[in-house]
Amino acid sequence: MPSVRQDDHVRGGPEAPLVVVYGDFTCPACATAHARLAELPVRRVFRHFALKAKHPRAPALAAAAEAAALQGAFWPFHDDLYADQGRLDDPHLWARIEALGLDLERFERDRRDPATQARVQRDVRDGLRAGVALTPTLVVDGELVAAARTSAILDAFGF
């Protein structure tokens, strides 16, 4: 199982079962997995698997989420993107940033910063090394669980 890194985005208590999620914000199946996981008592780690070849807007949205994270708002931004996948272009991102009370100028600088891009690419590289091929992919009890099996495997693990 991938170990939890210091800069991972983690939600849930340390005593809960760990689920690592490789996803992207343009993926409808990822939004479904997000909704399902939100109902469960798990400790969730989100990692970007933003492949431009599959979803051209995915890397930009991953960088936007990292920019929001630099202002302490990764999870609210994450949740909002999955709640409304029909509005993922820049004007809607700016509205989200303003609604969250974040600094829009800083957000714009941070999402274009090479360090932000590198953070996203590290998640993608780590996912590829772990055998991730599509989104969402979960790691549950050390087992890679591909998108088509997400609901069934969560049921099987008693989540």
Write the layout of secondary structure elements.
Blueprint: E1 9-11, E2 18-23, H1 28-38, E3 43-48, H2 58-69, H3 74-83, H4 90-99, H5 104-112, H6 114-130, E4 137-140, E5 143-145, H7 150-156
Parallel strand pairs: 2-3
Antiparallel strand pairs: 1-3, 2-4, 4-5
Helix pairs in contact: 2-3, 2-5, 2-6
Describe the structure.
It is a single chain. With 159 residues, this protein is an alpha+beta fold. It has a single domain (9-156), classed as Glutaredoxin (3-Layer(aba) Sandwich), CATH 3.40.30.10. The protein has 7 helices and 5 strands, in the order ββαβαααααββα. The chain has helices at residues 28-38, 58-69, 74-83, 90-99, 104-112, 114-130, 150-156, and strands spanning 9-11, 18-23, 43-48, 137-140, 143-145. The protein has a 5-stranded mixed β-sheet with strand order 1-3-2-4-5, with helices on both faces. Helix 1 links the parallel strand 2 and strand 3. The radius of gyration is 15 Å and the shape is globular. The mean pLDDT is 91.
